What does this fold into?
Amino acid sequence: MSVAGRVAVVAGIGNCVSNGIAQRLAEEGAQVVIGGEDPTCLLRTSGKLQGWPPKEHTLVAMEPGDVRSAEDLVQAALQAFGRVDIAVSAWDEPCNLPLIETDPSKLGSLLSVNLAGALYLARAAACAMRTQKCGRIVNLSSRDWLGGETGSAYAATRAGVVGLTRALAWELVRDGITVNCVAPGVIQNDSLKRLPPAEVEELLRAQPVRRAGTPAEVAEAVLFFAADEAAYITGQTLYVCGGKSALSPLTA
It folds into this structure.
């Protein structure tokens, strides 16, 4: 799948999924501008990108859910490379608490990181892409927007990203810009590692494939939507969840 020579921005660097997406795009030849709130993580991820052609990449410190940060990320790509071809919003703040047990400050943080983060990056990227009459916006949501193991507040923010994807695809279709969404299920990440072994075993038994997905499998789905070959696909949500979404009636 071709992204060679394309300029990609990836926001939300700081977890194994977002880091893997940036690395996969760089591996396929994209020039990657990464943004996240942890400077140490940004430097570490940037160092891993240097091994892939072309060797020039850029990093930007960001505040999640901050409109200026999203604009700065896009501007950094424009200044460094003159264009933005791919924009990936990979912000994710997990929460598995029931709504009535979720502190209001946590609710605000979930909305800011998970939903506003995607909205602001999509807006900034779309402004740049419209002048080019082409572009790919890929949002990360979660299979949990359909309901499941996580709390309703988290599900609501992830559902918002799916709604954004579908509506924005219609808005931008005449500008040659596609907008799609990747919705992972249970993935081998830091959050999963922190759970007690018995809880992990129970969680995996509930998956049709009986295992957790890998960050690399999520990255491949993002690469698919970002590639030239996906030009006729927009407004879609691709589940990387081992078949769990097939158990829900809300997958249309």
